[in-house]
Amino acid sequence: MLIKIPRASDCKEHEVTDEKLYHQRRAFMTHAVPTLAAALVAPSLLLSACNKSSNASASNTNAATDDALTPYEDVTTYNNFYEFGTDKSDPARLAANFKTQAWTLRVEGAVKNSGVYTLEDLIAKHPPQERIYRLRCVEAWSMVIPWMGIPLGDLIKQLEPLSSARFIQFETLNDASQMPGLNTSVLRWPYVEGLRMDEALHPLTLLATGLYGKSLLGQNGAPIRLVVPWKYGFKSIKSIVAMRFLPEQPVTAWNQNAPREYGFYANVNPNVDHPRWSQKKERRIGEFQKRETRLFNGYDEVASLYSGMDLKTYF
User: CB count, 10 Å around CB of 127?
Assistant: First the structure.
């Protein structure tokens, strides 16, 4: 049976599947065989095809599927995105008219296929995947979100980094005309983050272009952002405009701003307290009772990346 799902850009708000029905999508999809035309493998597909990726449903990287999803309303109105303001409600309010058309991304450094790419050209070769991930904020709250995107590792292989490239640095858009938070000195702008190469290549690391079957909104990091589910949320940089392949560990925004509070690795670790609060418990948005925080946010499959490292020193 062929099921045709319109592009996200064609959908109106009232046409979006109800969240309760979305939770039942897997049972429905076991009775359907999704078909994708090669010519449609483009960003519009990545934004709208949450129900089309049979690989994602079967993938062992989809590790949070037993958790209740955080309501879409909370995911899109309670955000950290300091380029739009420091209050949790600022991004949704101030990013309403954020422009993401004709988005380009610079690829620089120790990489064979460097250059400036349109978002379409960069990711069109990769089939979309759905990943339901927990995301834990350093402020001790968390969400469970159905993301849509491509594994970062697939894109890295396409770009062919040189053997000297051991790290990747990412950069967020720096446009004060659209992002009023850039007119403050809360951080040194532009916002930058980084991963070690083996972290970037891990199958869990995702370049997300959508959530809940819809395009990313400005407050969630449109049109493309990183999602690294075993690390604190500030590592999952939003609205990416540059990727740099580097031989040395790069500067990162929060580590540069407050190195005692924000380490480069930023792995979720209940045994390493933030200097101003404990990390042993967290509050899932939408829940009253706190829950125990799990090492690596519960993603035990990444533990081998840090074998032999003192996670209290490399926090």
Answer: 16
pLDDT band, residue 42 (cuts 50/70/90): very low
Q: What are the φ/ψ torsions at residue 306 (nearest 5 degrees)?
A: -120, 20
Give burial (CB, 10 Å; 0-12/13-18/19+) of 169: buried
Residues 98 and 193 sit within 8 Å (Cβ to Cβ)? no
Question: Which amino acid belongs to residue 109?
Answer: G
The DSSP secondary-structure symbol of 129 reads E
296: left (phi over 0), alpha (psi -120 to 50) or beta: left
Verify cis geometry, omega within 30 degrees of 0, for the bond prior to 34. Answer: no
Q: Which residues pair with 211 in a beta bridge?
A: 147, 214
**239-277 pLDDT, tens per residue?**
999 999 999 999 999 999 999 999 999 999 999 999 999
Please tell me whether residue 243 adopts helix, strand or coil conformation: strand
> Residue 152 carries which side chain, given as an amino acid letter?
L
> Distances from the Cα of 108 to the Cαs of 21, 151, 238, in angstroms?
43, 19, 18
The answer for residues whose C-beta is within 8 angstroms of residue 211's C-beta and 6 or more apart is: 72, 75, 145, 146, 147, 148, 220
Radius of gyration of the chain (CA): 19
Burial class (CB in 10 A: 0-12, 13-18, 19+), 67: middle
d(CA 107, CA 120): 14
**Separation of alpha carbons 200 and 154, rounded Å:** 10
The DSSP element (H or E) to which 217 belongs, if any, is none
Q: Which domains does the chain have, with CATH numbers?
A: 8-306 (3.90.420.10)
- Cα angle 131, 5, 48; round to 5: 40
